[in-house]
Amino acid sequence: MTDVQVTCINKVPRENKHEGITHLGNSTGKWTRSQVIQWIEDGTNTFYTMVGGKRANVLVVNGPNGKYVRTHADGTYNDNLLALTEC
């Protein structure tokens, strides 16, 4: 299992009602949200962000419109992913 730091994302265009993440990446590559969800669920890879020196794990959440990814740190879900720069 590889532990992968996510440093950038791509989102659906702003005119969309919700800011949905389409891709996650770092300096070595970029992956679709569905790939990342599959790898997390399969236990192939783990993903995390590092914001302000704090690690936040990327987890899969079942929402009303399907699965999506969100960070979780210190017992709280947060929007660290949406705060990352565009890939």
UniProtKB/TrEMBL annotation:
Pfam families assigned: DUF3892
Superkingdom of origin organism: Bacteria
UniProt protein name: DUF3892 domain-containing protein
